[in-house]
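hey so i finally got around to running the thing on that chain from the lab meeting. sorry it took forever, my laptop kept dying and i had to restart like 3 times. anyway pasting the input first so we r on the same page abt which one it is
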Amino acid sequence: MGSSTTAATAGATPARQRPSAARIGPAAWLRANLFGSWASSAATLVLLYLILRAGWSFIDWAVIRAIWQVPAGAHGPDTTICRQAQGIGACWAVVGEKYRFILFGFYPYAEQWRPALVVALFIALFIVSGVRRFWRRELALLWIATLVAIGVLMWGGVLGLSYVPQNQWGGLPITLILATFGLALAFPLAVAVALGRRATSLPAVRLLCVIYVELIRGVPLITLLFMASVMFPLFLPQGVDIDKLLRAQVAFILFAAAYLAEVVRGGLQALPKGQSEAADALGLSYWQKTRLIILPQALRLVIPPLVNTFIGFFKDTSLVLIIGIFDLMKSGTVAIAEPAWQGLSSEIYILLAVIYFAFCFSMSKYSRNLERTFGRARNR
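ok and heres what got predicted. didnt touch it at all, straight out
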């Protein structure tokens, strides 16, 4: 009797059912996030209408009514059709006509394969450096070899390459050179300054680091660029001249290092004191403790503000146009100074925005991947 009752009860127990589509899936997400109430539904529909209308207007301007080519005139391209279409359709012909100047500046036309290869080398170097399994000592050698190859390609004068002076460089290679060398050299300086600000046993070093950070952060980057470009040459001996690009690079390094130092110092302060005490208990020296325990954990904590600072300074390289260096932004500005293309700047600035966005979004995406990776390692 008992066994039959148990069997009947077991047979009456309903089988486990999967959650219905009303609880999971796209429909459930839409209901929970966009159509959860009358107010939320109304706001969603209004915003959707505005987005679709703006998107269609942009497609109509950028694609459907766009002008892709202009006829050749007696004194160059005839841009009359573009001027007649202003406000109605985009004139992408200006991009097709000026893209090489925007990307490479005044670099000799026949030799522009060299800066194009430099851009490819920079991107390849960034990709390889972002893969964690390549984070070994050999990576430093790869950086040195790649940067030497970049210098050979840009300058020339060896291996059968014609010499190109720096005043003919421009466009995207200049932006990548300023950003890459600037941040790569500013970061170790920033770490040293951050450690110096915490060196209570070395008051002179600590005071020097505090003065450096507060002085550099207290002035705009434009001020440092003007000083490097205009005032610094006045203190040089007669006949001694340092290239303008190098002076701007040094100013950029000093400015970036001051901001990065504060980010690194924030990570050092956020680290529990027990980590340092445990390292002391193990008998590690100051440099062993800092290199193996303190810095790796501190830098892991400040990945978001570090990458945010990198992105900000990558965009700040455009400020060098003020001192006459033809970076990407300066080349784009000069490209539309030709009378035939004056007033057709929107398309050029859209191209520049896409290029800047591609690099900045890549850094942001990589930062999020690093956070997830280190977060999983920390939670194990």
